[in-house]
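User: Can you predict the 3D structure for this chain?
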Amino acid sequence: MNRQNMKAFNRLKLAKLDELNVIREVNAVYEESVRLAKRKYYEIGIEVFIVVLYMLDYNRVDATKIADEKITMKWVDALLNEVDPVTLYEFTAESERKKQRLIEALAVALNRNAEIDKALRYWARQIGQYAVNIVDAARMEAFRVAGVKRVMWNTEQDERVCDTCGPMNGMIFDLDAVPPKPHINCRCWLSAVT
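Assistant: Here is the predicted structure, written as structure tokens:
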């Protein structure tokens, strides 16, 4: 996904961006990038959901059938329209804000390529955070389907574990009372307690 986004944003560097077409070109890049993100999120959600059910002793055929019912584009859109508890924004509104910021920056920038690179970095951070959210949401949905009532918080148990996540390693939560991840790029995950 990052490679495809890099190509889309790099097309802006090659385009003749005057006052008339900068809006059209930037809109096209963000529309393409949002479509790509949603498609990838859907694929990620399906795969995570199936893997979790498979790990909980569902056969692959049944897990796939249930995934097709539970993980839909409507499900993805609903998640993208929720406020992320870590970043405190929702995907669609933030995508629009980032797009408008780039249009404004390109209209006045002395170094347009630097502004495009900065916009791509911010976009990559946003789509990465929401990919984590999709993985977590698909995992939680699979737990619900499988009847899991409690989950355990797991960290990577390495030197990069933060001071907030470290003490939560091994803690058990009711499925409906799991705290949100405390920061961007959190590598923690939940496992079923049976």
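The CA atoms of residues 17 and 194 lie 58 Å apart. Residues 148-194 form one domain.
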